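=== RUN LOG ===
request id: a7f3
mode: sequence -> structure
chains: 1
length: 149
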Amino acid sequence: MATEASLARLLATPVAALFLGSATAVPAAAADEQPCVSDGEYQTLPTGRSVAVERCPDWSPRPDGRIPVYESPHGGTAVGWLDETGPRANWYVCQVSGARQDLGGYWNTWWALTRSDTGAWGWVNEVHFRGGGNGEADGGLAGDCPRSG
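=== RESULT ===
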């Protein structure tokens, strides 16, 4: 569950505009072999609004298998972790372009909004997503983050 302090930090970042209605265009993916998919699940944003989420196939090269969740799509501090990975282990709300993250021979500049397993909201770089190419947005995840109202 997001604390008041973590909610304030999330909304104080430059990406707060995403909750307030700015849109981000997502280029078409060349060939995302494992896009995110909807299973009809909804989650509640820190603003209180309920939104549809997508289940995305993700992975981690870490020995403990966890994925870091960052405070913004520009990286920075990890605010939490996703403890399990796999074909549909985690859900994500939307995606935006941000800082490049390299991992092994892979890289990406697209980030997906989610809530960590400790309850903190933040961003996962899509270098942790299966199926797409370097620098590609996920072929199934929404490109417009939801409005707050």
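=== NOTES ===
The first strand starts at residue 37 and ends at 44.
The CA atoms of residues 12 and 138 lie 26 Å apart.
=== END ===
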